[in-house]
Design brief:
The protein is an alpha+beta fold. It has 17 helices and 34 strands. Strands 15-16-14-17-18-19-20 form a seven-stranded parallel sheet. Helix 2 packs antiparallel against helix 4 (130-142), helix 9 packs parallel to helix 12 (517-534) and helix 10 (373-388) runs parallel beside helix 11. Keywords: Hydrolase, Protease, Serine protease.
C-alpha cells in the first residue's frame, strides 16, 4: 500500500460521485381509490349562486376609479380537499375567460367520510371581464349545455366562496375608525398591486392605465407615491406610499390592490459591551485557501480607520454616500470578522481565511424618505450580487418584519429567492432577535428575508459546538416559516447569551461583547466557506445539504423543530468529512427534469448483520412565484426509499377479502400466493420517509410533511432482514400559477446519504469502497486565482 493509500484509509474521507450510482427505474402505475367529495354540485350551486350574484351586483356599482377598465379582480376559496395542483379549476376559469393572477392563504373545512376539521386552504385570485362574470353566474345557475360547459360546471364543487377581495385581507393596519385625527400620523406604507394578467403561466405587471387610476386615488387622499422606488417582482408591483392612517381605508377599496401595509424599518443592531484588552493576532497566511469563489458581506462596513495588521486586508466598498456610524461600523466589522475567521477569541491567532471576502457598506442608508432605506439597501444587494458574481452572501440585516401566517408576498424574500435560483447563490441570513416578543401576534417569528426557500436562515444557540447541553438563545426568532420553508430557521449557531457573550472582533484585533443572530449567521457562513475548499466541487444546494445533514439534533428534536430547525451547526465541517469505520457518507449531485424519475443505489453492502441507520438529506433550489404565497415554490422533488429489492406487496384477487401482504417474492409463500391469483406489485415496497407520505394522505398532510419544501431530512433504521440492495428514487412535479406545469425545467439537487452500522462492528466504509467502484474520496480543492472584477467559478457546479 502506498503512503497516499495508507493516509486515505486512515482518514476515510466522505465519498463523492454518488450520481454515478444511478439506476434505470420504471415509474410505478398510478393507484388510489375514489376521492371523497365534500359537497355535491347541487350543494355548491346553492352556496355559490347567491355569492356570485352579489359579486356581479357589487361590480356593477363599483366606481370606475376603483377598478381596471376592462376587468375586475375576484377571489374564489377552494375547499381544502382540492389543494393539489391536479385539481386546479382550469376549465372553469377558461370557460369564463378568467386569468389566474395569484392566491391568498385562508382556512376552510376539510371533510372526509369520518371527520370535518378546519384546515389551511387558499383563495384563488383571478381577473375577469364583466361579461365573463355574467357567464360564470349563468353557468352556476343553469349548468352545462355541452361537454365543455359540463366539465367547467363540475369544478364548482371545488369552491366554497366567490367574492370581491375582502378589505381585512387588503389592509394590514388597525381599523381606521379606531384612529382619531389627533393620533393619526403620516407614515410610509407599502402597496402591492396584482399583476395585470397571466400569459402562458407568467404574470405581467399592472398596466400604466390602471396605475394612473391608482395614482389619482392616492392624490385625492393627499398621499404621495415615491415613484423612484416602484419595483416589479414576479408580476407584482411594489411601491412606497406616504399617507395618513385615516386615509388607508379609502385606498383599500381599489380593486387591483393586493395589500397595503406599514413599511418596515431596517432591524436595529445589537448593543455592544466592554472592549477586551487581549487581541486577535493576524493570520500567518493572509491569502485565502481558494480564490475563485468569493463571499459578500452587506452590513455597516469595516472600520478601516482603526485597522491594524492584516486582519481586514480585504476589498471594502462604501456603497452609501452617508458618513459611517461607529455603531454600524462595529457591527459590520464584527460580522465580517466572523465570516473571515469564524468563532475567534482574545489571545488567539486568526486562521487563514478560506475564501476571499468583500465588504459592502450599505448602512447608514442615504437620506431617503422615512422608512425607504430597506428598498434602497435591497437594490444595492441585488445589483452587486448580480454584477460581481458572489456565490456566498452573508446578510445580518433585513427589515423588522416577522413572517406572518397570511404569508403575503414580501419584496426582500421574493427578489432574493429569485436571485438565488437564477444565479445559484446561497444567502446565509440571520433569523432575527425577536424570539422573546409577543407570541400571540407572531412577532417572535423569523424575520424577513430569513423566510427564503432558497436560502439558509440561521438562529442562535447559547453555547458553541461541541459544548453541551445547549439550547436556543431566548432572543432567537423562531418558526414556522412560509410554505416551501416551514422549517425555519434551518439551524442554529452560537450567537452569544447572557452567560456567555459573543466575542465580536474589532478592526484593531480587540473584542467587543454582544449577542444576536447577526453573529451566529457569519459563523455558519465561515464554516460553509471552509467547506467549499474541502470538496472537489460545490453549489448552493450542496452547502445547504451539509448544513442540515450534519446539524446536531437536540433531544426531543421534533418538539423543538420550530425553535432550532434541524439542530446546531458545527463550527467546522473538517472532522465531519471523515467517516468512522462503521459509517459511510456519500454525496450525490445531479439534476432532474419535470416528470422524470431517477433511481440511485444506496450504498449498503449485503449481508447486513446489524441494524442499519440511513440518514438522508435532499436540498435543491426552486423557482418561486410571489403571487402564490401558499404555492410559493414551483418545484417539488419527492423521495421514495425501497430498502429491499426482493420485498414486494401482494394483493389478493378480486372477491377475496384479505389484506395485502409484503413478502420476499422468491419465497415459497410468495410462489403459493401467485399460484392462487395474488398480484405482485410492480416495484419493491416503499419505506415511508415521513408521515405525510403514507397512502391516502391528504394534500394538506403531504404539505405538512414537506412535499414542497426545498430541504428534506430523514432518518430511517432498518433491521437486517429489511435491507438488501436498497434504492432511492427522486421524482419531480412542477406547478405554475397553482396548476400543474408541463413545461420543461431542470432542477439541480444535492443528496447526502449516510449509512451507519448501529452495532459499530462492521467495516462499512471499506466495504462500500470495495463494492461501489464509482465512488471516490473527496479531495480538497486546488487553489485557483480570482481575477479582480470577474467571477471564475470552475469550482462551482
Amino acid at each position: 500500500m502506498t503512503d497516499v493509500q495508507s493516509n486515505e484509509a486512515a482518514s476515510r474521507p466522505l465519498l463523492v460521485n454518488g450520481e454515478a450510482l444511478r439506476l434505470d427505474v420504471i415509474a410505478p402505475q398510478g393507484g388510489g381509490g375514489d376521492k371523497h367529495e365534500p359537497q355535491t354540485i347541487e350543494q355548491a350551486r346553492e352556496i355559490l349562486l347567491p355569492q356570485v350574484t352579489a359579486t356581479a351586483e357589487a361590480v356593477a356599482q363599483m366606481p370606475q376609479g376603483l377598478r381596471a377598465k376592462d376587468r375586475v379582480y375576484v377571489e374564489a376559496k377552494l375547499l381544502p380537499n382540492y389543494l393539489a395542483a391536479s385539481y386546479f379549476p382550469g376549465e372553469l376559469l377558461a370557460h369564463v375567460g378568467a386569468s389566474p393572477v395569484g392566491s391568498r392563504a385562508d382556512v376552510g373545512r376539510y371533510v372526509t367520510k369520518s371527520k370535518s376539521v378546519e384546515a389551511q386552504t387558499r383563495r384563488l385570485i383571478f381577473t375577469v371581464t364583466d361579461d365573463g362574470l355574467s357567464r360564470l353566474q349563468q353557468l352556476i345557475a343553469n349548468g352545462g349545455g355541452n361537454r365543455t360547459e359540463q366539465q367547467a360546471f363540475s369544478q364548482i364543487k371545488e369552491l366554497d366562496e366567490i367574492s370581491l377581495p375582502r378589505e381585512s385581507d387588503v389592509l394590514k393596519a388597525p381599523d381606521p375608525s379606531e384612529t382619531n385625527a389627533q393620533s393619526s400620523t403620516r407614515k410610509i406604507w407599502e402597496a402591492v398591486l396584482h399583476p395585470r394578467a397571466s400569459r402562458n403561466g407568467l404574470p405581467e405587471p399592472l398596466d400604466e392605465e390602471t396605475l394612473a387610476l391608482w395614482f389619482s386615488l392616492i392624490a385625492e387622499e393627499e398621499g404621495v407615491v415615491y415613484r423612484d422606488y416602484i419595483r416589479h417582482v414576479g408580476g407584482l408591483t411594489f411601491m412606497p406610499v406616504s399617507l395618513d392612517a385615516v386615509q388607508t381605508g379609502a385606498l383599500a377599496r381599489f380593486n387591483p390592490l393586493r395589500v397595503l401595509r406599514p413599511m418596515p424599518a431596517i432591524r436595529p443592531r445589537p448593543r455592544f459591551g466592554a472592549r477586551s484588552g487581549q487581541r486577535l493576532a493576524s493570520p500567518a497566511v493572509n491569502q485565502p485557501v481558494l480564490s475563485d469563489i468569493s463571499v459578500a458581506v452587506f452590513d455597516g462596513g469595516v472600520d478601516t480607520a482603526r485597522a491594524s495588521g492584516n486582519l481586514f486586508s480585504i476589498p471594502t466598498h462604501d456603497i452609501t454616500p452617508v458618513p459611517p456610524n461607529q455603531g454600524d461600523l462595529d457591527h459590520g466589522t464584527g460580522v465580517t470578522g466572523a465570516v473571515l475567521y469564524g468563532l475567534a477569541g482574545p489571545g488567539e491567532q486568526a486562521r487563514t481565511p478560506p475564501l476571499p471576502v468583500e465588504s459592502y457598506r450599505v448602512l447608514p442608508a442615504p437620506h431617503v424618505p422615512d422608512d425607504l432605506e430597506g428598498y434602497w439597501v435591497l437594490d444595492q444587494i441585488r445589483e452587486k450580487v448580480e454584477n460581481n458574481g458572489h456565490r456566498l452572501v452573508n446578510l445580518s440585516l433585513g427589515p423588522t418584519l416577522a413572517v406572518e401566517d397570511d404569508m403575503e408576498p414580501n419584496r426582500w424574500t421574493s427578489e432574493l429567492d429569485q436571485l438565488a435560483w437564477e444565479k445559484d447563490v446561497l444567502f446565509v441570513v440571520a433569523a432575527g432577535n425577536d424570539g422573546e416578543q409577543d407570541r400571540q401576534t407572531g412577532l417572535h417569528r423569523v424575520q424577513v428575508p430569513a423566510d427564503m426557500v432558497n436560502g439558509l436562515a440561521v438562529g442562535a444557540c447559547d453555547v458553541p459546538a461541541p459544548v453541551r447541553p445547549w439550547e436556543r438563545a431566548p432572543y432567537s426568532s423562531v418558526g414556522p416559516g412560509r410554505h416551501g420553508a416551514r422549517v425555519q430557521p434551518l439551524g442554529v449557531q452560537f450567537g452569544g447569551s447572557e452567560s456567555r457573550m459573543f466575542n465580536v472582533v474589532s478592526a484593531d484585533g480587540s473584542f467587543l461583547e454582544a449577542s444576536g443572530t447577526s453573529f451566529a449567521a457569519p459563523v455558519t457562513t465561515h464554516a460553509l466557506a471552509d467547506l467549499v475548499t474541502r470538496l472537489p466541487r460545490v453549489n448552493s444546494s450542496v452547502l445547504r445539504a451539509f448544513a442540515v445533514h450534519f446539524a446536531e439534533r437536540p433531544w426531543m428534536h421534533r418538539k423543538l423543530r420550530d425553535e432550532v430547525g434541524y439542530g446546531r451547526h458545527p463550527l467546522s465541517f473538517e472532522e465531519l468529512l471523515n467517516c468512522a469505520p462503521h459509517e459511510a457518507h456519500v454525496l450525490y449531485v445531479d439534476e432532474i427534469e419535470r416528470s422524470e424519475l431517477l433511481g440511485y443505489q444506496v450504498p449498503v453492502v449485503s449481508p447486513v448483520k446489524a441494524k442499519t441507520k440511513l440518514q438522508i438529506t435532499l436540498a435543491y433550489a426552486s423557482p418561486v412565484d410571489p403571487t402564490q404565497p401558499t404555492e410559493y415554490t414551483s418545484a417539488s422533488l419527492e423521495l421514495s426509499l425501497r430498502p429491499h429489492h426482493r420485498r414486494h406487496s401482494f394483493t389478493a384477487p378480486a372477491g377475496l377479502d384479505e389484506k395485502s401482504r409484503t413478502l420476499d417474492f422468491t419465497s415459497d409463500e410468495a410462489r403459493n400466493l401467485m399460484a392462487q391469483g395474488w398480484k405482485l406489485s410492480q416495484e419493491p415496497v416503499n419505506k415511508s420517509l415521513s408521515a405525510g407520505n403514507k397512502p391516502g394522505s391528504s394534500e394538506a398532510q403531504l404539505r405538512d410533511s414537506g412535499k414542497w419544501e426545498t430541504v428534506r431530512h430523514h432518518r430511517v433504521t432498518l433491521n437486517p432482514d429489511e435491507v438488501e440492495d436498497p434504492r432511492l428514487e427522486v421524482s419531480y412535479v412542477a406547478r405554475r400559477a397553482g396548476a400543474l406545469d408541463n413545461s420543461p425545467t431542470k432542477i439541480p439537487f444535492a443528496l447526502l446519504i449516510s449509512v451507519v452500522d448501529e452495532s459499530k462492528q462492521a467495516d462499512v466504509y471499506n466495504a462500500v469502497r470495495a463494492k461501489f467502484g464509482p465512488l471516490r474520496p473527496a479531495q480538497r480543492a486546488q487553489t485557483r486565482l480570482r481575477t479582480r472584477g470577474t467571477s471564475m467559478t470552475s469550482h462551482w457546479y
